[in-house]
């Protein structure tokens, strides 16, 4: 059936298309919404129920068809992998609404698709499973909705599981639903609190600055954090059934309700006002039958709450009659009391769920409850918040009020949703998606009208009659010749068709942009500016003439290009419908942008429009594989296919490594599998072979350990012995390593000497990783200053740089790190990494990396702060050393290299015998450092520079090896929900794969345990499959990249003490995890691996009889 479904075409009726086009012009009645939830909580099933209201699919197939899962692998796996949009028409009384619904994935690997959907919406339906409650991905999607300032409403789905699976009573179910609401509100409350406190802190900082300026700082002030929280308005923030933003549902059985519906029903039956019932149906209220009054305190008095008595009991009794007991008499009573009409086949059906679905879908249709809530509670495009507009337009470190005036005026166009002729067009493209060219409306076969069919029929008859008479009139020879000519021409035709087919198939994927109009009207064939993420409207406005349009192409402005919107489409799930124009506030598809837009972009007719802020991606791409074609001749097809895949997937990354390998980086195993399938079947259309996943590692150094491998204290003498043991064989004519780990290296031409020490960075690594973009900005500023260019730095950027410097000063405390932050020479690798190069050269005062913070240099220091020649060679050597460490050529992390001596001799002054021992040269260091190396300036890019880079790199590597080395492994956080009976097996699988459980807790009201663990990425492949097999599908893990962790074991460790010999044996051949990983990486990279294949081979003796 599913194969048939995927081929099924739905051609929209002209009347419904015209209706939607008419509704697009009224932004007040448009609702742009997405469905968000954890994986398998019922998003697509709910979407099916909503789609069925428009007659696009049968209501009987809703939930089984999964209409918006149009890919074959989505249907097979049963999970959504991409965001799909569909436009629905809904009538509520005399009001008609247009709902642009986007169904999004729940699997953590595809969370980037959620980000693309959320950006285009004004509201979201958050779906929560009534049994599982709030799961990790539920928290993630609530956070994404919060970051984008969109309003959520809640659907608690799968309530039928409480009855059928957990067999709870209606009273227990009420308590359980209350807990779920509390959990969801707790997540929202946490996000709200953090936002309020952040705003409070920013305001206080501004006030303090003002007070400092006015010098009226009051003495003792008591700081009250809670004051701001109490003032903040959070009335619209939380989910509560009496506010109308919660629906209770079972999408698979087709029913759902909000409290309003029952309030209406019972107000007529009981004669109580609907407003009163609305306030009391959810909460600790009960019905006093004698007094016919609603009273408070049901729990204290042991009474049934109104919600249980009037709502849940009815649903429970219906399930009891239809599903549990199958009591026909009771069913008939229920059907007559509800006034529901049933078909005879439903009553006779062997599956009770069919009967239940038939009753519920008429009594409490889920689509009615959800659509009503969406129209009443979610905002229209006209109600877009000013704060959201400002946030969208404040790209990078710029504040909204620092943008040019013309740009700030665009805020009005956003808020008013203006679609006048003079209003600027602003469109945001959140992703590009590929569709089959044959599926485009202009290429789709149009159904023939009756007249056309009759005309074609007459023509065919006429042709047939003519051929028949011609054949009779000719001789038999002529008949044969005609026959042969026809057959030959037929063969030739088929040959030409066969030959031409591959050419047609070449270009069969077309890219459509998934976008939304935020201002103006998008028209087919319109020229627009494409604004890159680094585009600066202030710079462009100063360079462009006033009133410039996108029709004249602009090449001189950086990050600005022009393109034509060749076609506009209405997105209808699996179908597209062509449109001539799309007004403001609508979601649409745009054709013809594949050349101009890679993944996401901002389009506008006004150069004053800033690019929107980048999308917030929750998942980090971490799983990488090398890809090559089975037949090397097909390499160009693979390259083209990977380029198309990179454009079609918002999270996938495609890169070519230094080794020449084509590498695909994805968010997880399922995502990787989907990308490989797409590459094989859609984009490259060739046989490909993928390597085993390339696991990223990092190399680092740690402080010398205080205990050995058997937890015995290490004596000082023993430590020294180890250092000498490691160093032996290292010293040579140009290299010297002292006992303190200081490495001194001379270049082969004996003109330069560097002394370097490696140290582990204390607790700074994560800060440097988080601040990578800020460090890149800092590096660009410093480069401009070195080139003598004037650069306008925004106030916010300066604040961020000051904040980074302050945090580094706080973290780098102690005698060893005195003034270290001011002495930072560079960050690495690639000038932004989590390693630091320190300038400890005596007498060398080079400009600091923080020079942009103090532009005014004191007169005395101005002369001293000069960059020496070949300074860049030192930095380049450091960058190379940190990019590929000595253990297995992986990048370094958390290492500080301190340059303690750097001498340069000019070739002229180099006489015979000047190359004395390094120990003598060490005393002359400071004098030489202060000397101006004039001769070297001419040789800035000559052999001295190259030799110094190589020497610096080697010195860093040797300094690294002089310290205790460790490997760092990427870690996933793994959240598992499992029942008590499979808990042991969960721990077994985690233990086998080097996992570590952080904590476990039991979910209240269920027998489910939530286990939070960490697991190395290297051990995660096949983990989910093994997990499901071992637990019979009762537990499923969610893996999200978390952090880097040092593996405690030393890969080079050998037993040295008597206790270690006793414990580990002479060979110490028990598995060393660190060594195993290191050798695997070395083997993959083709580096030398020190291992013995066979040692002391002996003939095996058997116990069989000698013959």
TrEMBL record:
The domain of life is Eukaryota
**Which GO MF terms does the UniProt record name?**
GTP binding; GTPase activity; ribosome binding
**GO term, biological process aspect, one:** cytosolic ribosome assembly
Entry-linked Gene3D superfamilies: 3.30.230.10, 3.30.70.240, Elongation Factor G (Translational Gtpase), domain 3, P-loop containing nucleotide triphosphate hydrolases, Translation factors, Yeast translation eEF2 (G' domain)
Is GTP-binding set as a keyword in this record? yes
Per the record, what is one GO cellular component?
cytosol
Alphabetized SUPFAM superfamilies for the sequence: EF-G C-terminal domain-like (SSF54980), P-loop containing nucleoside triphosphate hydrolases (SSF52540), Ribosomal protein S5 domain 2-like (SSF54211), Translation proteins (SSF50447)
* UniProt keywords, alphabetically: GTP-binding, Hydrolase, Nucleotide-binding, Ribosome biogenesis
Annotated Tr-type G domain ranges read 28-382
- One Pfam family name is GTP_EFTU
Q: Where is this region: Disordered?
A: 910-929
Cross-referenced InterPro entries, in alphabetical order?
A: EFG_II (IPR041095), EFG_III/V (IPR035647), EFG_V-like (IPR000640), EFL1 (IPR056752), P-loop_NTPase (IPR027417), Ribosomal_Su5_D2-typ_SF (IPR020568), Ribsml_uS5_D2-typ_fold_subgr (IPR014721), Small_GTP-bd (IPR005225)
What protein is this chain from? Elongation factor-like 1
Gene that specifies this protein: efl1
């Amino acid at each position: 059936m599913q194969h048939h479904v995927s081929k099924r075409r739905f051609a929209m009726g002209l009347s419904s298309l015209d209706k939607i086009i008419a509704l697009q012009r009224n932004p007040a009645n448009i609702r742009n919404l997405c469905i968000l939830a954890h994986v398998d909580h019922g998003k697509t099933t709910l979407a099916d129920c909503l789609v069925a209201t428009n007659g696009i699919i049968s209501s009987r197939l809703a939930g089984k068809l999964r209409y918006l899962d149009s890919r074959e692998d989505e249907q097979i796996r049963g999970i959504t992998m991409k965001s799909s949009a569909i436009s629905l028409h809904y009538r509520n009384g005399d009001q008609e609404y247009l709902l642009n619904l986007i169904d999004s994935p729940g699997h953590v690997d595809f969370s980037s698709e959620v980000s693309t959907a959320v950006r285009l919406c004004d509201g979201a339906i958050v779906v929560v499973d009534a049994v599982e409650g709030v799961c990790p991905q539920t928290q993630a999607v609530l956070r994404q909705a919060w970051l984008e300032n969109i309003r959520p409403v809640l659907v608690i789905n799968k309530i039928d599981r409480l009855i059928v699976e957990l067999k709870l009573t209606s009273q227990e179910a009420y308590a359980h639903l209350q807990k779920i609401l509390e959990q969801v509100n707790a997540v929202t409350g946490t996000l709200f609190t953090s936002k309020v406190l952040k705003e409070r802190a920013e305001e206080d900082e501004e006030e303090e600055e003002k007070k400092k300026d006015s010098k009226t700082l009051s003495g003792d002030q008591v700081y009250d954090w809670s004051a701001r929280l109490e003032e903040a308005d959070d009335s619209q923030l939380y989910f509560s059934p009496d506010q109308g933003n919660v629906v209770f549902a079972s999408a698979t059985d087709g029913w759902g309700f909000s409290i309003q519906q029952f309030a209406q029903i019972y107000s007529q039956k009981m004669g109580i006002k609907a407003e009163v019932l609305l306030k009391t149906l959810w909460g600790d209220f009960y019905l006093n039958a004698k007094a016919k009054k609603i009273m408070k305190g049901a729990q204290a008095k042991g009474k049934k709450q109104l919600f249980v008595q009037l709502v849940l009991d009815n649903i429970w009794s219906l399930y009891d009659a239809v599903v549990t007991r199958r009591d026909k008499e009771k069913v008939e009573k229920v059907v007559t009391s509800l006034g529901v009409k049933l078909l005879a086949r439903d009553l006779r059906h062997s599956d009770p769920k069919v009967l239940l679905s038939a009753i519920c879908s008429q009594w409490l249709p889920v689509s009615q409850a959800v659509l009503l809530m969406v129209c009443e509670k979610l905002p229209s495009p006209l109600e877009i918040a000013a704060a959201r507009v400002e946030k969208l337009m404040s790209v990078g470190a710029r504040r909204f009020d620092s943008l040019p005036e013309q740009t700030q005026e665009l805020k009005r166009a956003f808020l008013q949703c203006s679609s006048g002729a003079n209003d600027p067009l602003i469109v945001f493209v959140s992703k590009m998606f590929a569709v089959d060219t044959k599926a485009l409306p202009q290429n789709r076969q149009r159904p023939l009208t009756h007249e056309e069919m009759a005309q074609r029929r007459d023509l065919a008859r006429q042709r047939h009659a003519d051929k028949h008479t011609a054949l009779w009139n000719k001789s038999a020879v002529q008949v044969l010749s005609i026959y042969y000519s026809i057959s030959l021409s037929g063969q030739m035709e088929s040959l030409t068709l066969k030959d031409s087919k591959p050419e047609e198939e070449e270009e069969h994927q077309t890219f459509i942009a998934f976008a939304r109009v935020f201002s103006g009207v998008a028209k087919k064939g319109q020229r627009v500016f494409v604004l890159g993420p680094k585009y600066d409207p202030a710079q462009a406005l100063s360079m462009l003439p006033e009133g410039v349009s996108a029709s004249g192409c602009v090449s001189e402005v950086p990050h600005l290009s022009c393109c034509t919107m060749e076609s506009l489409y209405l997105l209808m799930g699996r179908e597209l419908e062509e449109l001539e124009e799309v007004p403001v506030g609508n979601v649409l598809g745009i054709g013809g942008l594949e050349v101009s837009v890679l993944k996401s972009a901002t389009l506008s007719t006004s150069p004053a429009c800033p690019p929107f802020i980048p999308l917030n991606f929750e998942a980090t791409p971490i799983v990488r594989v090398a890809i090559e074609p089975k037949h090397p001749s097909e390499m160009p097809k693979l390259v083209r296919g990977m380029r198309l895949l990179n454009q079609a997937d918002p999270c996938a990354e495609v890169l070519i490594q230094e080794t020449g390998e084509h590498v695909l980086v994805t968010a997880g195993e399922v995502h990787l599998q989907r990308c490989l399938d797409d590459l094989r079947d859609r984009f490259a259309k060739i046989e490909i072979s993928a390597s085993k996943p390339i696991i990223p590692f990092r190399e680092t150094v740690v402080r010398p350990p205080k205990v050995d491998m058997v937890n015995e204290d290490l004596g000082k003498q023993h430590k020294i012995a180890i250092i000498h043991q490691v160093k032996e064989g290292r010293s040579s004519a140009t290299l010297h390593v002292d006992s303190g780990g200081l490495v001194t290296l001379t270049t082969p031409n004996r003109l330069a000497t560097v002394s370097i020490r490696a140290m582990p960075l204390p607790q700074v690594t994560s800060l440097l990783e988080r601040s990578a973009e800020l460090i890149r900005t800092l590096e660009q500023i410093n480069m401009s200053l070195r080139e003598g260019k004037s650069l306008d730095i925004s106030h916010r950027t300066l604040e961020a740089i000051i904040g980074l410097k302050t945090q580094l000063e706080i973290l780098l405390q102690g005698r060893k790190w005195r003034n270290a932050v001011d002495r930072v020479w560079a960050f690495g690798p690639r000038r932004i990494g989590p390693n630091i190069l320190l300038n400890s050269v005596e007498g060398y005062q080079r400009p600091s990396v923080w020079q942009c913070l103090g532009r005014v240099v004191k007169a005395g220091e101005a002369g001293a702060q000069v960059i020496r020649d070949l300074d860049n060679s030192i930095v380049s050597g450091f960058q190379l050393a940190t990019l590929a460490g000595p253990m297995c050529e992986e990048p370094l992390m958390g290492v500080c290299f301190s340059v303690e001596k750097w001498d340069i001799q000019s070739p002229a002054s180099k006489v015979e015998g000047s190359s004395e021992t390094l120990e003598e040269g060490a005393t002359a260091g400071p004098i030489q450092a202060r000397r101006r190396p004039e001769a070297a300036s001419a040789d800035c890019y000559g052999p001295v520079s190259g030799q110094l880079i190589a020497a610096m790199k080697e010195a860093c590597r040797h300094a690294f090896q002089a310290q205790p080395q460790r490997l760092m492994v990427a870690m996933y956080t793994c959240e598992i929900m499992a029942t008590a009976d499979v808990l042991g097996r969960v721990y077994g699988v985690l233990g086998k794969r080097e996992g570590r459980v952080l904590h476990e807790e039991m979910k209240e009201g269920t027998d489910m345990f939530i286990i939070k663990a960490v697991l190395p990425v290297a051990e995660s492949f096949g983990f989910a499959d093994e997990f499901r097999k071992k637990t019979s599908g009762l537990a499923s893990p969610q893996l999200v990249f978390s952090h880097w962790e040092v593996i405690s074991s030393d890969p080079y460790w050998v037993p040295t003490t008597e206790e270690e010999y006793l414990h580990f044996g002479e060979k110490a051949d028990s598995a060393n995890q660190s060594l195993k990983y290191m050798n695997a990486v070395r083997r993959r990279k083709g580096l030398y691996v020190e291992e013995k294949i066979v040692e002391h081979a002996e003939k095996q003796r058997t116990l069989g009889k000698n013959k």
